[in-house]
C-alpha cells in the first residue's frame, strides 16, 4: 500500500470523524450552554483532532504491533491530540477543576471503549482459532 493511498484513506476517515465531532460538539453546546460558545476558532482545531484520530485507528487496524501496545499507542496519540488541539488553544479559558473533570470523563469513556474493543477482538480471535483446521505438526 502506497503512502498516498494510506493518506487518502486517513483523510476520508478524518472527514467522517470531523463530521461526527462537530455534531457531538454542537449537541453538547446546545444542550448545556444554550447554543452559546460555538466559536469558529475552536471548531477549526477539530479537523487535526479528527485526522489524528483516524491515523490512530489506522495504526490499531493495520499495525504489526501486537496486543496491548496498540491500545497504548492509540491512547497516547488521541490524548496528545486532545491536549494539542482542544485544551491548549483555549488557553486559560478552562479552570483547572473543569479541565480535570473533562479529562477524567475522557479517561472513563476511553476505558469503556477500549474494554469493548478488547472483548470484541478477543472474541474474534477465539472464533478465528476455532474455525481454523488443525494441521499436524509431525
Structural account:
Helices cover 79% and strands 0% of the residues. The chain has 138 residues and is mainly α. Helix 1 crosses helix 3 and helix 3 (46-62) packs antiparallel against helix 4.
Coarse morphology = elongated
Helix/sheet category: mainly alpha
Largest sheet: none
Radius of gyration, CA atoms, in whole angstroms: 19 Å
H and E order? HHHHH
Give me the oligomer status.
single chain
Q: Please, how many helices? A: 5
Approximately how much beta-strand content do the residues carry? under 5%
Arithmetic mean of pLDDT:
82
What is the helix content?
A: over 70%
Alpha-carbon distance between the two ends: 37 Å
Taking pLDDT < 50 over at least 5 consecutive residues as the criterion, the unreliable ranges are: none
Tell me how many strands there are. 0
List the helices and strands and how they pair.
Elements: H1 3-33, H2 40-44, H3 46-62, H4 68-87, H5 96-131
Helix pairs in contact: 1-3, 3-4
